[in-house]
Amino acid sequence: AYIDISGSILFVGTNATTLFWTQINQDTGAPSTWNSVTLPVAMTDVYVQSPGAIYFCASAGRIYRTADITIAPTILDSGGTDNFARISGINQTIVAVGANGRVYRSTNNGLTWSTVTAPAATSLTAIAVLGPKDIWTGGANGNVYHTVNGGATWSTAGLPRTGGTVQDIVFATREVIWIAY
Hints:
The chain is mainly β. The protein has no helices and 18 strands. It has a 4-stranded antiparallel β-sheet with strand order 1-2-3-4, with no helix packed on it. The protein is globular. The two termini are 17 Å apart.
């Protein structure tokens, strides 16, 4: 369901409650023996802020955190019932998005959270955070939404195709954005 690297540990999460991890060779990237961790719930996405700060999102509006990917994360916040699909961040800002246009943001490494005004009444399925107030998200309706004021207002950018779902957003540079659609 998701994959990432934390320091020298490659990890892969499943649609269930198993997280697989392995130490990777720093020179070749080759994995060693795979291990597993049982998670408290099935996670939907992960954001690695640093090897000591790894955040997960899950259904029912839950955010989890661990300081060591080889140890199951603990719940950090359960701010609602809307299922979260994606989580991302930059510096101290972490943003999770999900069902019903839900945008949930922390600007202090997850100590406190607040709901941001939804850009649309659609499931949000992608997220890229460029700054504390500069957030890009994509929806199940095929649109991309952008705010530069922390969600007070949003602009909408339709894609050249109709229908479909925005699956992921990645910035190569501030001027070049890649969208999986």
